[in-house]
Known about the structure:
Elements: E1 33-37, E2 49-51, H1 53-56, H2 68-71, E3 79-82, E4 98-102, E5 108-110, H3 112-117, E6 121-128, E7 134-144, H4 145-152, E8 160-165, E9 171-175, H5 176-179, E10 184-190, E11 193-194, E12 204-207, E13 219-225, H6 232-235
Parallel strand pairs: 4-13
Antiparallel strand pairs: 1-2, 1-3, 4-5, 6-7, 7-10, 8-9, 8-13, 10-11, 10-12
Bound molecules: the ligand Nc1nc2c(c(=O)[nH]1)N[C@H]1C(S)=C(S)[C@@H](COP(=O)(O)O)O[C@H]1N2 and molybdenum atom (MO).
Amino acid sequence: MESPPEDPGPPSTETTDPDPSGGTSPVGRRVFLGIVGLGAVGIVAGSRIESGLHTVVAPLQAHDPTGLSNLIPGGNQWEIYNASNGAFPDVSQEEFQLNIDGMVDTPLTLSYTDLQAMPPTTLVKTFQCVTGWTVPDVHWQGVLLSEILDRAGVKAGASALRFFSSDNFDTESLTLAQARRPDIIVAYQMLGAPVTREHGGPVRLYVAPMYGYKSLKWLSRITVTNEVVPGYWEQQGYSVDAWIGNSNGL
Ligand SMILES: Nc1nc2c(c(=O)[nH]1)N[C@H]1C(S)=C(S)[C@@H](COP(=O)(O)O)O[C@H]1N2
Ligand SMILES: [Mo]
């Protein structure tokens, strides 16, 4: 048998070292990546696989080194990502608040019902994680970022948005121009129903033209600013501009 083509491997061998001291790791030893495979047949649904830096360094490789996606019946199904400590934030629709602050004329606090009362945008697209798994024809509904920005009023000199999660861990950024695109929403529905807790509910970002890591889960705060700050996954080596098919992921 011929051996398979050589895998270029991760860009830096340093990052594959579990580094029990936590000292030189770009991530730190407290970081865990929880992945729950939700197969359509449900065989692995509910199981939980957590490991330390082994899976955290996975994003640096252009495939799924955990092999987890192969275990999911039918393939092409959701993997639930939570780069923090594996505990999903638990925020009810009633207590949910989205704060918009920074370089705005009027800082806003929007409730779930405030978002639902704004003009809705529906998007249907294949969801694509940079590690290679995809889910076709996912329905989303939410509010365009541009609607929210117009309501708050963006001050002169602002050029970027920073997104915070109630996991208090992952963050994301977009340029102001990207954020005003018609295919980027603050989503309160996913898969035809309210966004579930695992998928980042009650409200997550959905950045349709970019890889999944831009679609920050458990969205809690948007800060209008003048600098693009790389989020957690980008600190692991992924492109800040995560255009599907035109970034360093695959
Ligand atoms: N807060 C938070 N948002 C996140 C992530 C995460 O670890 N934490 N993972 C990202 C990645 S890499 C992907 S592919 C998608 C996966 O969405 P899902 O967990 O709903 O399948 O969420 C993105 N948003
Ligand atoms: Mo991802």
